Amino acid sequence: MEIIIFIISLLTTLVIIPFVKEMLLTANITGSNYKGHKIPVGMGITFVPVVIINGILFNYFIGNNANMQQLLLVFLIGIMTMAVIGLIDDLMGNRDTLGFKGHIKSLLKGKLTTGGLKAIVGGLISILIGSLFSFHIIEIVVNSLIIALFTNLINLLDLRPGRAIKGFLTIAILFIIIGLSKETRIILGSIIAYAIGYFPQDIKAKSMMGDIGSNTLGITLGIVAVISYTMTVKYIILALLVLIHIIAEKYSITEIIKKNSILNFLDELGRY
Questions:
Q1: Which domain of life is it from (predicted)?
Q2: DSSP 44
Q3: Which of 50, 37, 41, 40 lies closest to 87 in space, CA to CA?
Q4: Rounded distance, CA 95 to CA 188, Å?
Q5: Neighbours of 241 (CB within 10 A)
Q6: N or C: where does the chain have the smaller number of CB atoms within 10 Å of the terminal CB?
């Protein structure tokens, strides 16, 4: 089952990409890559039909298992919610207000930016999903923060071609190595297949997956983390996420990567 869903997810991604790319180019939903070439923006929308097809397959294989169906629905609700908010940000994004602090300050002044909307809705869906897998208030807080911060983490990485997907794949594979339930591993595996299928487009700057892509990949990692690990492990994950976000608010992640020869090598790998 795992292999079948992985392969179908990969093939579906490869088939859908050219159609979505042409659709976005025709609608002039484009931006300029680092070479100044016009490329489609919001290509992460390819993830939506892929994840639905994966869900149909997953449901077929698990049969009438209510617990597994609920798990599938949780992933779908989280992914689809962030896909919608990500698409709004890609199409209407306020690029004059950057950073989490900037969006919050704008909101306090009575101006709602698309980034502020993303933060509000992302926070609410994180609390909803986090509470579904919690037994007490502390666990709700920890789970909600992990989901929200993972969602934003991949977005923070999506500043150079291929960086966000490299980050997603690294964390996803690490999760699998640490250990996941079979059902969670199958769902994450299907999304890894999507990321692999889309990766050549991203690393060569042929298209931008946008917030719709980074948000959906990020929330996937967050959900996997909160449903899979003990509180001790989640405390460690949360501490690392908070540290990364504090650093990202004060310093440029791109500059940090450039100054580290190993990180810079990995970041540039496959780009040129």
A1: Bacteria
A2: G
A3: 41
A4: 32
A5: 19
A6: C
pLDDT class of 101 with cuts at 50, 70, 90: low
Q: What is the spatial distance between Cα 251 and Cα 260, in angstroms, rounded to a whole number? A: 14
Phi/psi of residue 187, nearest 5 degrees: -65, -50
The 10s digit of each residue's pLDDT in 177-223 is 998 888 899 999 999 999 999 999 999 889 999 899 999 999 999 99
- With b for 16 or more beta-carbon neighbours within 10 A and e for fewer, the 46-83 pattern comes to bbbebbebbbebbeeebeeeeebeebbebbbbbbbbbb
79: left (phi over 0), alpha (psi -120 to 50) or beta: alpha
Which SS3 state, helix, strand or coil, does residue 32 take?
strand
**Beta bridge partners of residue 40, listed in sequence order:** 30
Whole-angstrom CA distances from 193 to 90, 158, 176, 189, 202 are 24, 19, 14, 6, 14
Q: How many CB atoms lie within 10 A of CB 236?
A: 12
Token digits of residue 130: 């986090």
CA neighbor of 225 nearest in space, from 142, 110, 158, 115: 142
Choose among 50, 32, 52, 51: nearest CA to 41: 32
Neighbour tally for 219: CB within 10 Å = 29
CB 165 within 8 A of CB 269: no
> For residue 240, is pLDDT > 90?
yes
Structure-token pair, residue 119: 């933060």
Domain regions of the chain by residue span? 2-268
- Alpha helices (H) in the chain, listed in sequence order: 2-26, 47-62, 66-92, 100-108, 114-132, 137-157, 163-178, 182-203, 210-228, 231-250, 253-259, 261-268
pLDDT tens figures, 106-158: 777 778 888 888 889 999 999 999 999 988 999 999 999 999 999 999 999 98
